[in-house]
Amino acid sequence: MALAVVFALVAAFSNAVNLMSQHVASVTAPQREKGWRLALYLVRQPLWLLGGVAAVGSYAFQALALHNGPMSVVQPVLITELVFVLVLRRVWIHQDVARAAWASVVVVCVSLAVFLAAAEPSGGQPAPRAAQWLSAGCVFGGVIVVLTALGWRGPPARRAGLFAAAAALSWALEATFLKTVTDTLTAAGIGGVLTTWPVYAFAAATITGTLLQQAALHVGPLSVSQPVLVITDPFASIILSVWLFGEHFTNSTTAIIIAVLAFAVLAAGVTMLTRTAPEDVAPAKAA
After folding, report:
1. Does residue 42 sit in the same domain as residue 137?
2. What is the rounded CA–CA span in Å between residue 50 and residue 22?
3. Rounded distance, CA 275 to CA 280, Å?
4. Which residues pair with 247 in a beta bridge?
5. 106, CA 20 to 30 Å: which among 21, 125, 130, 191?
6. Residue 247 carries which DSSP code?
7. Are 133 and 240 members of one domain?
8. How far is Cα 265 from Cα 261, in angstroms, rounded to an integer?
């Protein structure tokens, strides 16, 4: 369990490095570089390439975390990506960070620790049955389709929230496929992975989630889409961890109530953090 948490934290940090490095590389590119020229420019920049390496590392460490521990532990821990991004903003590009944002970091970290300690997620089976895959895939896939369809019309904030929720459900499914692929790789090698369907479902979920996330970021404010993305993913992952892998939690009613309250506080902390963090990557101005 401890090893899974460590790998999840490293995955979260790697993704934070990916987001920050590629975003900084993009916004500091010359104004004349646009469209395909911008793409060609970026792939030649060491900072942007560093982000790509960090992205690969994030998937690798997430896979190791899922292989060594319950998904109901790993996916919530990945929320710490927001904390690492804020630290990188302050340490790397020397941004001024509001006290409210640091207070939100404390709320997120403490509530996450309380949730994991109280819920005591554990157990699980390595290979879900075909009927479980079919039922979960149909339900989650159906909800993703409905949310996406509803997101085509309406006010920008509503559309962003709907697309973000659909993207988060795709990421949750992606995590289940990644966990299964990793277990198959360990047991049967690369040949076993390539001759079974989860690796292709993982690729499809990754593409779907990426497209939906970009749609959410494009149509509405980040203050709406980011909290929905960050909170819905672990919540849906917890549901899938029980549904597919048979993971379970403490039998104590009191502990469950504490865990639910802690998750609610975590959601509030994430929302506050996304709304109090710096809006861009401009460094602090010298006095």
Report:
1. no
2. 8
3. 12
4. 123
5. 21
6. E
7. yes
8. 6
